[in-house]
Write a structure and sequence with these properties.
Elements (H helix, E strand, L loop, with lengths): L10 E6 L8 H4 L6 H20 L4 E7 L3 H9 L3 E3 L7 H15 L4 E5 L8 H14 L6 E4 L6 E5 L13 H7 L3 E2 L5 H4 L5 H10 L3 H11 L1
Parallel strand pairs: 1-2, 1-4, 2-3, 5-7
Antiparallel strand pairs: 4-6, 5-6
Helix pairs in contact: 2-9
This protein binds guanosine-5'-triphosphate (GTP) and L-phospholactate.
Length: 221
């Protein structure tokens, strides 16, 4: 008897973006970066992250969750879909709303939460991680990618009925403690979130997308 053919898992990437007017506050605390430069960098990180995600093979759709409607218009030109955040000021609640929207718009797809501060994100590496996500979800309820410094999380995925992200300080240990399986350990560009200017310096050395390249060149002048 042949075994039934299972549909391969389909992935919809959900990217939460805090409006750049407020986001990435730790950048401004650093080396006296002024508020305009902080805002431009926060916007550039999100644009590069979303543009790379929309170019990634195996991504069925990218859903950006943000209340910044000017940024939303640019994200749509990359082929991303956008929904409002509803100003929850709670990243995990925002992502749960995003996952519910994935169920409505792309029934059967797995929501994959991806942070928007990955300016060096490479489509080839995200594609590799998504293959690990699909494999991991064959046996585990949830999977996550640990950030480059080891304590945080840059990606979390689970089927919508089990989707329970625990982002925030120390989230990698929380995700692992809840039984999520770590994936993507070798995917440097998926792990390299930028929280401060030291992170940005390291990302610039490794290579970033065009928006962050422009914004950081303006910073150097
Ligand atoms: N839509 C939405 N996105 C959020 C919210 N909080 C955080 N994010 C996004 O979640 C990701 C990770 O957030 P953090 O690294 O904490 O970024 P941040 O809050 O902008 O940075 P800091 O102000 O320095 O803490 C980034 O993509 C943020 O834009 C929120 O309340 N709503
Ligand atoms: C969202 C959070 O990012 P951090 O603020 O720790 O960089 C996390 O890693 O869960």
């Amino acid at each position: 008897m042949t075994s039934p053919t299972l549909d391969p898992l389909r992935c919809v990437v959900v990217v939460p973006v805090k409006p750049p007017a407020f986001g990435k506050s730790r950048l401004a605390a650093d080396r006296h970066l002024d508020d305009g430069a902080r805002r431009e960098l926060a916007e550039a990180f999100a644009l590069d992250t979303v543009q790379a995600a929309t170019s990634t093979p195996g991504v069925e759709a990218v859903l950006v969750v943000t209340d910044d409607f000017r940024l939303a218009a640019t994200m749509r030109t990359f082929g991303a879909e956008v929904m409002p955040d509803g100003a929850t000021e709670d990243l995990n609640a925002t992502l749960v709303q995003g996952a519910a929207e994935v169920v409505r718009r792309w029934p059967g797809a797995v929501p994959v939460a991806l942070c928007a501060d990955l300016p060096g994100l490479r489509p080839v590496e995200l594609a590799m991680v998504l293959r690990e996500v699909v494999d991991g979800l064959g046996t585990a309820d949830a999977v996550f990618v640990r950030d480059h410094d080891g304590s945080g999380t840059t990606l979390y995925a689970a089927p919508a009925d089990r989707f329970a992200p625990a982002f925030g300080t120390g989230s990698a240990a929380r995700h692992a403690g809840a039984g999520a399986v770590e994936v993507g350990a070798g995917a440097a560009s998926v792990r390299h979130d930028v929280d401060d200017l030291d992170d940005l310096d390291a990302a610039l050395v490794a290579g970033v997308g065009p928006h962050t390249t422009r914004a950081s060149a303006a910073l150097a002048r």
